[in-house]
Amino acid sequence: MRPEVRQFIRNRRWVHRGEAVVYGANTRCDAFSTDEQGFRHSVFNGKTLSVADCLKAKKYGIVLGSSHLYGFGLAGNQNTIPSLLAEQFGMPFANVSIPEANSRNLHSLLKGCFAASKRPPAVVVHMSGGDFTSFCFSSLADPIFGSPNLKQIESALAERGIAPDPELFFPALLSFNGFWTKLISQLCETREVPLLLASDTTFFEKTEPSDLERRCKLGIPSGSEQARQFETHKKYFARFCEHRTGLASKLGLPIAGPGPANDLSYVDEFHYDKPGTQQLVADYAKAIGSLL
Description:
A hairpin with a 2-residue loop joins strand 3 and strand 4. The protein has a single domain, classed as Rossmann fold (3-Layer(aba) Sandwich), CATH 3.40.50.1110. The strands form three sheets. Strands 6-5-7-8-9 form a five-stranded parallel β-sheet, with helices on both faces. It contains eleven helices and nine strands. The protein is an alpha/beta fold. The termini are far apart. Helix 4 crosses helix 11 (274-291), helix 5 (103-116) runs parallel beside helix 8 and helix 6 (129-138) runs antiparallel to helix 10.
């Protein structure tokens, strides 16, 4: 029912880049491609651009996020959020997104982008959905280092011997998200770069599933591990959204996106299809327009 997703499953190669897990570099297939650092290419004026290419432009934007913004399951680099924003605002947007990226990873990546470019970006868009979804996988979080990455979860759980109680670790997740989001905000502020926080949203917050989503059995766990993940997500998502909204207010930052309720369309519980992505971009574009 979603043949384009096969390309992502067959060509998804995760490798460690230090502590972070990234997509394999220089991947080429019909649905997507990655640059020499493992970032997905974006498109501007018909040209396929790496992150390094975008940073060389006279005017450019940066999109920071996890697989939500990377566009897992979304065929065509031209259909991703960074590419659609590029078309909207007449400048390339670098797709600085990696699987389950947390705000600590993204702070480091943003700092590296600033150092590598001769001029600062016109705007930065930051979604921290990876902070929360990583927590939902493991029920673990550290206030400085966050949750285990996708390749660390098995060993992190084995160290404890029993399933961790997410209620005990949720405050640490909020501390982690707040701390690193504040540092991202300060990094942008020192360079006078406008920053937009993008609110996370998933299939679980959707008002009513579509017929296709029902046929794909979205929201129905395939096993006990996914059942725990889904249960944790549904139990804590509203509290995480409330924290995010409060954080944006405290930092004086705009926040865009549908938030705790949506009518987007999905390829799976956490990734948007083409119409869903277009709808999300419309929300982001309104906020970015007021910043530029």
